[in-house]
Amino acid sequence: MATIKACLFDLDGVIVDTAKFHYQAWKTLADGLNIDFTEHDNERLKGVSRMRSLEIILEIGGVTMPEAEQVTLATRKNEVYLEDVQRMTEADVLPGVRRFLEECRAAGLKTALGSASKNARLILERVQLLSLFDAVVDGTDVANAKPDPEVFLKGAEMLGVAPEECVVFEDAVAGVEAARNGGMHCIGVGDASILSDADFVIPGFEEMTVARLQELR
Ligand code: B16
Ligand code: MG
């Protein structure tokens, strides 16, 4: 049985569903450029950085533009996205997440957030979860995106816990790979057929308990 001392969480798709807000904001931008950007295309942006997301959309539309213009567009998209984030409340936390975080802390486990989003702290504040995390590593703290393990290794280091004593909760394939590349355990959140590299997959946190961490080998 594995010894687990810390739980590390991805943000979008695990703690909150911000993907729908990202999609709406990118869709507005794509419409303005006459690029046909679908919800199916949006799957490719999950866990990916803001600038890389824009590159993917421009690739879909076969559009090229100078980098300075790309920065302007990405900034504008973020302003639109933040209008939705500002409206977020405690009610936007996905079912069971707050209870599981509280259970982790009561059991003496450390908790950290590991997200590609530069808005991660703001979102945690909006949904009133910031105080339940011992460490937050976000898109402003790392140079290498998932599947590079940097975001999770930094989190483990801040917690003072060895990678093999950490379990990562992830909804994206690149995030599961990042956990694996960092030598960590991983519990997938979502579809088991997609997250096949995880130790096991849960549909969400409603049935998740600290006792279930004993299933990790
Ligand atoms: P921002 P995660 C990721 O969050 C999202 O999944 C991804 O769609 C987004 O592009 C990225 O954050 C950057 O977000 O524009 O707020 O910096 O899943 O790593 O928590
Ligand atoms: Mg995610």
Entry keywords:
binds 1,6-di-O-phosphono-beta-D-glucopyranose, DNA polymerase, domain 1, 8 helices, Rossmann fold, 2 domains, 217 residues, alpha/beta, six-stranded parallel sheet, binds magnesium ion, single chain, globular
SS summary, helix count: 8
CATH topology of the largest domain: Rossmann fold
Strand order of the largest sheet: 3-2-1-4-5-6
Structural class, by secondary structure, is alpha/beta
Backbone CA Rg: 17 Å
* Biggest β-sheet description: 6 strands, parallel
Distance between the termini: 5 Å
- H/E element string? EHHHHHEHEHEHEE
Strand content: 5-15%
The percent of residues in helical segments reads 25-40%
The outline comes out as globular
Question: What is the β-strand count?
Answer: 6
Low-confidence stretches are none
Q: Based on the structure given, which CATH architecture of the largest domain is correct?
A: 3-Layer(aba) Sandwich
- The CATH superfamily of the largest domain is HAD superfamily/HAD-like
What is the count of structural domains?
A: 2
Name of the level-1 CATH class of the largest domain: Alpha Beta
